[in-house]
TrEMBL record, chain A:
Protein name: Sugar ABC transporter
Domain ABC transmembrane type-1 span(s) in chain numbering: 80-292
CDD domains the record matches: TM_PBP2
Membrane topology reported for the UniProt record: Multi-pass membrane protein
Name of a matching Pfam family: BPD_transp_1
Membrane spanning stretches: 15-38, 84-105, 117-138, 167-190, 274-295
SUPFAM superfamilies, per the entry: MetI-like (SSF161098)
Family: Belongs to the binding-protein-dependent transport system permease family.
Keywords, ordered alphabetically: Cell membrane, Membrane, Transmembrane, Transmembrane helix, Transport
InterPro entries for this protein: MetI-like, MetI-like_sf, UgpAE/MalFG_permease
Organism, as annotated: Pseudolysinimonas kribbensis
Automatic annotation (TrEMBL), chain B:
Keywords, in A-Z order: Signal
Full protein name: Sugar ABC transporter
Signal peptide segment: 1-23
CDD domains per UniProt: PBP2_TMBP_like
Pfam family, one: SBP_bac_1
Membrane-spanning residues: none
Amino acid sequence: MTTAAPTSRIRRRNAAAAIAPYLFVGAAAIYLLFFMVVPMARGLWFSFTDATLLNPDGGQFVGGKNYGDLLTSGAFYSSLLTTLLYTAGTVIGSLLFGTVAAVALSERIRGRAVFRALLTIPWAVPSVAAVLVFIWIFNVESGVANRATKALGIGAQGWLLDPKLGLLSVTLVSVWKVFPFVMLVVLAALQGVPGELREAARVDGADRLNVFRTVTLPHIVPTLRIVALLMTIWSIRRFEVIYLLTGGGPIDTTNTIVISVYREAFQNSQLGQAAAIGMLGLCLSMVVTVVYFLSDRSDARKDAR
Amino acid sequence: MRIPRRTLVVGAVGVAVALALTACGPSNSPAPSSSGGKPSGTLQIAHWDFLAPNYGQQMQDIIKGYEKYNPKATIETVGIVRADYETKLKIQLSAGGGPDLFTMADTFLPTVAAANLLEPLDNVLTPTTKKALNSTNKGGVYNNKQVAVTWQIAPYAFLWNKDILAQAGVKPPTTFDELVDAAVTIKQKLGITGFAVRSRLAEETPWWVDFNNWIQGYGGSWSDGKKLTIDSPQNVAALTAFKKMYDSGAFSVGDDASTFRTKFSEGQVAMMIDATGAPPAMISAKVPSTSMISSPLPFPKPYTSQVGIYFGINAHTKNKALAEDFLNWFLTKDTQQALSENLGNTSTLATKTTVSDEFLAKNPWAVGYREDGENTRSSVIRGFESVTPQIAHTVLSQVEKVLLQDVSPQRALSDAASSLK
């Protein structure tokens, strides 16, 4: 009797220890199952039906018709190209401005904390509020942007109306909104660059640009790579900034894949077609992720040699 | 490793509870049972005008007046911005939810009715109520069933700020050429926007209704009832005129309705074509009601578009008896008169309402709207009611090309007609 109780307790403790990982993982798995896998599976099913928004369960199975219609439509490829251009512009712009700002703010300059706080504001401001401000900035009649171009002798521009400027304007606003994230992450990475290496390079006669290129950059490249991946995926998925600024216009020049999904599902009520666009968009995100991991693995192998 | 059965049972129960919690979403609670006479419960009623400046709050107060008539009821008004209204309702209705009663544009009604999302009203309205309904309620009939009643048929009119026109020394235009000349003169002399109407695809649904003014004003139409007439000569003439105004240098290029109405109320826009809901919302210290004048549109024909707003019961409502009682109260003479005055006494409602001479004297802009009330035409395409939104999207996408890419009106409308075939 005296030894039975401790043995039983030990067994219970061992059993609890054995089941604990499953419970922890199980909670996350249930969450993902209900909020990711089920909706995604339902979306996949919708993409093979002619379901409409007002009658989502009444759709008939149409096989690959939705995909066939998309892949033979010029509008889809145009939307894909717009997505790629927007993504490239936003990623390159935010990495460039973010890195430059981070390097500048890692130096010991007067008012550094104030500058850091100021440059973080765009990331902190809610997107809707920021976009409303930019709509006024880009207003043809009374916007600040056109006052500036008029003062420069260029004349008023239709920033959000001219098909040649629509994508550029949307990309500029997006870069403004997201570059502080890059700046903060790169700032953190810069703390890990050994000061003595930079000092040694300077002693060897390297100027600031060369110090950055030969010492700093190699140390922050892994960080930049992961930030680029995140920026790419976020840009492919970005909706609110584009939709609020232009709604996909002018003349569909900012109609990215995500905007197409919204228009098809919620404006044209074609849930099946929208789901098909969404699935192809998902494939695009997955391709980017796979390419990143393949390139990362290849670099790791090179480093190992 | 062997896991004790008791532990497995505890784990399974935990997972089951978690699953149950996850699966249980919010659900509409059923209506409390009625007790003695009037039904009880809470009704949600949605309309975009509940958010309208100046008169939106008062409109909500009128609707909540039902609580005095039926103290067992609670009314919750749901305001949704106009641009997102249809989208939000579609999402809610498709999920089996949504407000108990809601307004809808005449262009949206066929879509909702075709999906059987509106409660038939033929056995809901009392004989007295039915007798009081005017002819505009025919717009709420779908497949020979009354599925909605008129909330408001709002005519359009040509509206201008008389102080600005006087300052610029121009007479109120009565033809299209005079309109362009007046707008350009105002822009040149005062530096403010001469003329404003919607022109952006981002406001697709209301732009379609607005643009119908030009089509009606030039004697055009989108169909003959059997086939589409998208590229008819009258429609091409209407689009050509629109383009000329857009390119005049005096047009509110790029402004949405919210922006150009704000500018009008600030005295920064001189003239516009807008529905009757606009003037009450634009009255301000800078532009008092007495400074706004309206008249028929300066186009060859006397016809205008209309904002047709209908009101129906959600087929998913859990408060059917209460919703039906509310609808009969809504159609009583006093409620209709109160709503008519709230809307500026210029719209046609579900039943007959009156307007005093005193009101017209204080609000001169109401006169032109009342004159136009007899000449309004719906922007729902006859014979193509349930696909009007899709046709509208195709046509307006081409109109945008005319405005922004200088595609000729003839080619743009021909392209729209071809793609719709």
